[in-house]
Automatic annotation (TrEMBL):
Ranges in a coiled coil: 496-523
Biased amino acid composition, Basic and acidic residues: 432-448
Family label: Belongs to the WD repeat coronin family.
WD repeat residues: 78-120, 128-170, 176-217
A molecular-function term among this protein's GO annotations: actin filament binding
InterPro entries to which the protein is assigned, alphabetical: Coronin, DUF1899, WD40/YVTN_repeat-like_dom_sf, WD40_repeat_CS, WD40_repeat_dom_sf, WD40_rpt
Designated name of the protein: Coronin
Length: 527
C-alpha cells in the first residue's frame, strides 16, 4: 500500500483573511434588497460600484476606492434605469467605463468622470435595446475591446459591439438561442474563444461565442448547477450547485467532456447560492456562500485529485454579495493575493477583505506574483469577430514597473480611435510607448513629481507648478461652487495618494539595495 501524505507542499497553505478596520470600510451604503443571485458589487483600482436600494427606477453607487468611512446618504448616484438594476461590471480595459443591466430590458454603458460621480448621472454613453424581458447578466469579453455579452429572462444571449457611432444600439451582432430557461451565470475562458453558461434547467453549456454553436452540454442528474466558472488555462470548468440530496456541492468538469464530473464534493446543507472566484495566477479557488459568513479556499492542480482544500475564513457577518479587486489593484507590499468587498446588508456596510500570504519580508515577492492580465485589450472587436484568438496581454505587479510594459511583441499601437474619441482625459496607465527615449522621459518625469505651490503674488490668481525642477505658472481660478471645491479636493487627494505610492516604491527599492549591499559585504568577509 502506498502512503500518501495528508498535507501537500504549498506556498498558499497559510493564506489568511484580514478584514479592514472600521475606518477603512464603506459605512452607510443603502445596499439593494433584491433577491437576485448576483454579486451586486464591482471594483477596480479606482472605483467601487454597488447596486443600491431606491424608490422608483434603479440606481447604483460609484465611490472612489479611497473614499472610505461614512458615506453621505445623499451621495450622487448613477440612476438612469427605469427598473431595478440587476448586475454591474467594470470594463476590464477602461477603469472609467461600467455596464449595467436592469429590469427595464436594457443594458447601459456609463462613462464615469475621472474624479468620481459629483452629480447624478442619468444619460448613458451607450444604450443597448433588444431584450424583450428583464436583463439579468452582463459580461465583458476578456481580450477583445468593445465587446460585451448580455442575457435576460427571454432566454437569449446577445453579443454587442460598442465601437459604433449610434448612442442607442438596437441590433446585436449575434443572438444565441440554445437555452430553454433563464441563464444564471456566464464565464469566458482565458482567450475568450469559449463561453460557458449555467441555466435554470440545471445544465451547463459550452458555446462558441462568435457563432452561437452549442459545443458541449451536461446531462448529469447528480449535480444541479447554479454557477459556472472556467478554470484558467487548465481546460476545466468548475460549477457550484446542489446534489440530488439538496446538499450544496462543487464539481469540476473536463472542458471537452461534460458527461460526468471529474471531481465533486458536498459542502453543507445550507440553501444560499455559492459564488466561485478563481485566481489563475495562484491557482486558488474561493467559494463564498450567499448569507454565509465564511469563505472556503482551495488550490487547483491539473493532476488528481484536482481540488486541494486549504482552509477557510470565518466571520459572524453574513455577506449578501461579493466584489473582487483585479490583481493590478492589490497591495503587493503586504503580500496581498486577493481582495474581496463583502456586502453586509444588516449593517449597511461594505467590508474589504484581504487574503494575505504570511511572509517575514515586506519586499516584493516574485514567487507569489507572476505576470498577470493587464488593462490593455489584446485585439480589436473586428479582429475577434473575424476569428482571431489571442491570450490576454500580461503585465508585472512589481512596484515601480510600468503598467504599460507588456511582455508580448507587437503592442506598439495605442488605444483604439473609439477610446480616444470617448475619453479625452489623460490616462498614463493606458499608453503604450514605442521608443526607449519615451520610456526614459516618463521615468524622469515620475522621479520629479509635479508639486502645487501657492503663488507669491497676492494680486494674481495664478498657481505655480514645479515640474522636473522648473517652475511653470498657469492660470487657475479659485473654486466658485461646492462641486468645484469638491473636485479640487479629490484632485489633491489623488495627488497625495500617488506621491505616497511613489515614496513606498522608493522605500522598497532602498531596502532591496541595502540588502544587496549587506550580502556583498558578507561575501567579501567570508573571502
Amino acid at each position: 500500500m502506498t502512503w500518501h501524505p495528508q498535507y501537500r507542499s504549498s506556498k498558499y497553505r497559510h493564506v489568511f483573511g484580514k478584514p479592514a478596520t472600521k475606518e477603512n470600510c464603506y459605512d452607510g451604503v443603502p445596499i439593494t434588497r433584491s433577491v437576485h443571485d448576483n454579486p451586486l458589487c464591482a471594483a477596480n483600482p479606482r472605483f467601487i460600484a454597488v447596486i443600491t436600494e431606491c424608490a422608483g427606477g434603479g440606481s447604483f453607487l460609484v465611490l472612489s476606492i479611497h473614499h472610505t468611512g461614512k458615506v453621505d446618504p445623499h451621495h450622487p448616484k448613477v440612476s438612469g434605469h427605469r427598473g431595478n438594476v440587476l448586475d454591474i461590471k467594470w470594463n476590464p480595459f477602461d477603469d472609467f467605463c461600467i455596464a449595467s443591466c436592469s429590469e427595464d430590458t436594457t443594458v447601459k454603458i456609463w462613462d464615469i468622470p475621472e474624479h468620481g460621480v459629483l452629480k447624478n448621472i442619468t444619460v448613458p454613453w451607450k444604450e443597448l435595446q433588444s431584450h424583450s424581458r428583464r436583463v439579468g447578466l452582463v459580461e465583458w469579453h476578456p481580450t477583445a475591446d468593445n465587446i460585451i455579452f448580455s442575457t435576460g429572462y427571454d432566454y437569449q444571449v446577445l453579443m454587442w459591439r460598442l465601437d459604433v457611432p449610434e448612442q442607442v444600439i438596437k441590433y446585436p451582432v449575434r443572438s444565441i438561442s440554445v437555452h430553454s430557461d433563464v441563464v444564471l451565470s456566464m464565464s469566458f475562458n482565458t482567450d475568450g474563444s469559449r463561453l460557458a453558461t449555467s441555466c435554470k434547467d440545471k445544465k451547463i453549456r459550452v458555446l462558441d461565442p462568435r457563432t452561437g454553436i452549442l459545443l458541449q452540454e451536461t446531462d448529469c442528474k447528480a449535480h444541479r448547477a447554479s454557477k459556472v466558472l472556467f478554470i484558467g488555462n487548465l481546460k476545466m470548468l468548475l460549477s457550484t450547485g446542489n446534489s440530488r440530496w439538496n446538499h450544496r456541492q462543487i464539481a469540476l468538469w473536463d472542458q471537452e467532456d461534460l458527461s460526468t464530473p471529474s471531481y465533486s464534493e458536498d459542502l453543507d446543507g445550507s440553501s444560499g447560492v455559492l459564488f466561485p472566484f478563481y485566481d489563475p495566477d495562484t491557482h486558488m479557488l474561493y467559494i463564498a456562500g450567499k448569507g454565509d459568513g465564511n469563505i472556503r479556499y482551495y488550490e487547483i492542480s491539473p493532476e488528481k485529485p484536482y481540488v486541494h482544500y486549504l482552509t477557510e475564513y470565518r466571520s459572524l457577518l453574513p455577506q449578501k454579495g461579493m466584489g473582487v479587486m483585479p490583481k493590478r489593484g492589490l497591495d503587493v507590499c503586504s503580500c496581498e493575493v486577493f481582495r474581496f468587498y463583502k456586502l453586509v446588508t444588516i449593517k449597511s456596510l461594505i467590508e474589504p477583505l484581504s487574503m494575505i500570504v504570511p511572509r517575514r519580508s515586506d519586499s516584493y515577492q516574485d514567487d507569489i506574483y507572476p505576470m498577470t492580465a493587464g488593462n490593455q485589450p489584446a485585439m480589436t472587436a473586428d479582429e475577434w469577430i473575424s476569428g482571431l484568438d489571442k491570450d490576454p496581454l500580461m503585465m508585472s505587479l512589481r512596484p515601480g514597473s510600468k503598467l504599460d510594459s507588456y511582455v508580448e511583441v507587437g503592442l506598439s499601437k495605442g488605444p483604439t480611435d473609439s477610446t480616444e474619441t470617448r475619453h479625452s482625459r489623460s490616462r498614463p496607465n493606458q499608453l503604450i510607448h514605442e521608443r526607449l527615449d519615451a520610456k526614459e522621459e516618463n521615468e524622469r518625469k515620475e522621479s520629479h513629481p509635479t508639486l502645487l505651490l501657492p503663488s507669491t503674488d497676492e494680486n494674481s490668481s495664478s498657481t505655480t507648478y514645479v515640474s522636473n525642477g522648473q517652475l511653470d505658472s498657469t492660470h487657475c481660478s479659485p473654486p466658485k461652487t461646492e462641486n468645484e471645491l469638491r473636485q479640487m479636493f479629490y484632485k489633491q487627494q489623488e495627488e497625495i495618494r500617488r506621491l505616497r505610492e511613489l515614496l513606498n516604491q522608493k522605500d522598497v527599492r532602498m531596502k532591496q539595495l541595502e540588502l544587496e549591499i549587506k550580502n556583498v559585504k558578507n561575501s567579501q568577509a567570508t573571502l
